[in-house]
């Protein structure tokens, strides 16, 4: 369409369409234009508006010359149709009688020019064509510019980023809707102010100076700012400020684009927090494991010493103190092991409603009468694969914290629910993978947790309670247990209102497994059987040997797995029970038991460990419910456990897997 238009009746070929049913007029025009146009004009004739439209639909014309009689409306009808069908081309009306009213009607309808037929000659027609094309091009340019502006405007208005335009001194001239949506300030409130409106006072000193120096020197500023919304909330903005220059290159305005990255930072910090907890967990678990062995030795020798002292001996009290202290230390290490996810587990398919109902019977004693306890059991909960003893620990710890947070009474609500976290939820809210979970929530109406404490409450030994009141291990234990069970824990708290802890445990799709009743064992520490004691820690081994020999057993000692194999093969008599550590270098307890199972089918096995890696548990064929003893244990507990295992029906039962 633009072909040759700039040089109307100039150098390029132009296509004109004459519209009108008068053949004489057409011939006249053709003659006139053929002289003027130097043969560069192509001319077609349409006898009616319909014909003109049909031609326009097939051919592109640079100009229409249209017969126009005031009152007949044909030409006006054509213009209307052209406009409606988007068939843009400049139109000149040719009329026998041109008066002011006729011209006005024509121009209003969209014609570029209205020319009197009687005054047509080479010059007038050339001028009219040039003028019409010129007007038409300008109109088109204006429309294009308007169109572009409209698109840009929409882009800015619909942008999810905050867009703000300020003048050179920083006074706001424009803010887009996202600005109001995030900050809470309407355009009326923002315009005329400066961006200091959003100042949070949390920027590092010197940042604003750097910002202004950069943009005033024509550079683009990029940085992360902490800003404050109208409601006082803070948000993190990734900011870009670009100077806007006029035609002479002078800076006239600044365009600021802010992206709200608050949520992204929250997710990043969640991830960092999880990684930090993981690292502390490994450290705590490692320390606790080594510490366990030392405790075993301390408590074992104390026990031995106590047994060798007469009942009224003055030293008995001192020994009792040692034993009490080491029991407390053992409790601590057990919690640290739980936090480090190194606690032995006895996994079962559990219905949490069932478990909570059971524990709830003893909770009132723990939390006291001033606190109302409400249990809202979710329907169709499904099951989780977890250790009931660990779940009990979680419930007790959370309930104890709720109690401490409500010294003057209040309400503790325990809820369960079956939830599905879909991809959309997960992307927006958390680093929890999408999936089906059983939710266990604890909500109290207590004092709440101040924001500065929230990030630390799951760390071991983090407590806000006064000396002697809290060890800071409660939540660390909960955290470790939840993680060990493949779950996630969340906390929401508002100081003065209360706190909610939410635990998500992965739901498993299986039939209910039977809960195994806990076995009560009669105390019968003595025996005369032959035991093979496999333990790589010499001090632990020796104290146990001493104690067991005193209790009537024949004890064969092995300092590692290979040693045990050798002794078992060499010893001629029967061996009734092997007591073996689970984790040992070269040959671990589970493998050792497996190798000896065929050679000594009647020998039972009791595993002991400070911890066992999950892999050992899964592949190690260890029955943690029936033939496992968690270190540190007292020698009496060992004696009881030995009797318990020796009294079980078959040796095979002692070496089948529970997980
Ligand atoms: N429900 C709660 N309401 C208010 N603050 C809580 C709540 N639960 C935990 N906290 C805060 O978290 C801290 C850590 O809790 P955690 O259970 O780990 O340790 P503790 O209760 O102080 O000591 P411990 O449980 O070892 O006796 C508490 O000191 C307390 O400040
Ligand atoms: Mg606690």
Question: Describe it for me?
Answer:
By secondary structure, the chain is α/β, with parallel strands linked by helices. The protein has five domains: 5-154, Rossmann fold (3-Layer(aba) Sandwich), CATH 3.40.50.2300; 159-260, Beta-Lactamase (2-Layer Sandwich), CATH 3.30.450.20; 265-339, Signal transduction histidine kinase, dimerisation/phosphotransfer (DHp) domain (Helix Hairpins, Orthogonal Bundle); 348-508, 2-Layer Sandwich (Heat Shock Protein 90), CATH 3.30.565; 530-655, Rossmann fold (3-Layer(aba) Sandwich), CATH 3.40.50.2300. It has 21 helices and 22 strands. Strands 11, 12, 13, 14, 15, 16 and 17 form a seven-stranded mixed beta sheet that branches. A hairpin with a 3-residue loop joins strand 16 (488-494) and strand 17 (498-508). The chain is elongated and about 145 Å long. Bound molecules: adenosine-5'-triphosphate (ATP) and magnesium ion. Residues 397, 400-401, 470, 474 line the site of magnesium ion.
């Amino acid at each position: 369409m633009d072909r040759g238009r700039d040089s109307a009746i100039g150098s390029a070929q132009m296509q004109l369409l004459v519209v009108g049913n008068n053949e004489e007029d057409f011939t006249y025009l053709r003659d006139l234009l053929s002289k003027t146009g130097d043969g560069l004009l192509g001319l077609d004739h349409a006898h009616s508006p319909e014909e003109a439209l049909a031609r326009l639909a097939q051919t592109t014309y640079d100009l229409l010359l249209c017969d126009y009689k005031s009152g007949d409306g044909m030409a006006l009808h054509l213009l209307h149709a052209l406009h409606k069908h988007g068939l843009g081309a400049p139109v000149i009306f040719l009329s026998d009688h041109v008066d002011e009213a006729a011209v006005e009607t024509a121009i209003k309808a969209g014609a570029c020019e209205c020319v009197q037929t009687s005054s047509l000659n080479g010059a007038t027609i050339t001028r009219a064509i040039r003028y019409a094309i010129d007007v038409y091009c300008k109109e088109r340019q204006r429309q294009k510019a308007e169109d572009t502006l409209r698109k840009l405007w929409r882009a800015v208005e619909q942008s999810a980023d905050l867009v703000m335009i300020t003048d050179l001194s920083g006074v706001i001239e424009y803010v887009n809707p996202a600005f109001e949506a995030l900050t809470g300030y309407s355009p009326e409130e923002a315009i005329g102010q400066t961006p200091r409106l959003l100042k949070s006072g949390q920027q590092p000193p010197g940042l604003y100076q750097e910002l202004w120096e950069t943009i005033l020197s024509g550079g683009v500023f990029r940085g992360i700012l902490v800003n404050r919304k109208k409601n006082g909330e803070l948000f993190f903005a990734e900011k870009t400020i670009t100077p806007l220059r006029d035609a002479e290159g002078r800076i006239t305005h600044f365009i600021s684009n802010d992206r709200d990255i608050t949520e992204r930072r929250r997710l990043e910090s969640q991830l960092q927090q999880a990684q930090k907890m993981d690292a502390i967990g490994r450290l705590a678990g490692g320390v606790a494991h080594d510490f366990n062995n030392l405790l075993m030795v301390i408590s074992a020798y104390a026990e031995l010493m106590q047994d060798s002292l007469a009942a009224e001996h003055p030293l008995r009290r001192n020994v009792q103190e040692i034993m009490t202290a080491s029991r407390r230390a053992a409790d601590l290490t057990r919690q640290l092991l739980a936090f480090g996810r190194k606690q032995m587990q006895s996994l079962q398919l559990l219905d949490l409603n069932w478990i909570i109902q059971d524990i709830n019977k003893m909770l009132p004693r723990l939390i006291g009468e001033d606190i109302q306890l409400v249990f809202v059991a979710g329907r169709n909960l499904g099951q989780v694969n977890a250790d009931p003893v660990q779940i009990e620990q979680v419930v007790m710890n959370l309930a104890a914290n709720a109690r401490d947070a409500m010294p003057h009474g209040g309400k503790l609500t325990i809820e369960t629910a079956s939830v599905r976290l879909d991809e959309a939820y997960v992307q927006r809210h958390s680093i929890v993978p999408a999936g089906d979970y059983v939710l266990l929530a604890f909500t109290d109406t207590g004092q709440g947790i101040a924001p500065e404490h929230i990030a630390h409450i799951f760390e071991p030994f983090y407590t806000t309670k006064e000396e002697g009141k809290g060890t800071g291990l409660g939540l660390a234990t909960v955290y470790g247990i939840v993680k060990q069970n493949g779950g996630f824990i969340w906390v929401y708290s508002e100081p003065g209102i209360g706190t909610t802890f939410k635990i998500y445990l992965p739901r498993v799709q299986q039939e209910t497994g039977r809960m195994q009743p806990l076995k009560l064992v009669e105390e019968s520490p003595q025996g005369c059987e032959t035991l093979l004691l496999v333990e790589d820690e010499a001090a632990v081994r020796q104290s146990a040997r001493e104690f067991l020999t005193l209790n009537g057993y024949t004890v064969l000692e092995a300092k590692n797995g290979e040693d045990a194999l050798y002794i078992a093969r060499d010893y001629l008599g029967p061996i009734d029970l092997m007591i073996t550590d689970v984790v040992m270098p070269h040959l671990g307890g589970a493998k050792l038991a497996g190798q000896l199972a065929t050679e000594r089918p009647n020998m039972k096995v009791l595993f002991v460990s400070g911890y066992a890696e999950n892999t050992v548990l899964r592949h190690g064929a260890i029955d943690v419910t029936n033939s496992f003893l968690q270190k540190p244990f007292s020698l009496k507990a060992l004696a009881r456990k030995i009797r318990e295992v020796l009294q079980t029906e078959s040796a095979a039962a002692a070496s089948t897997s529970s997980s």
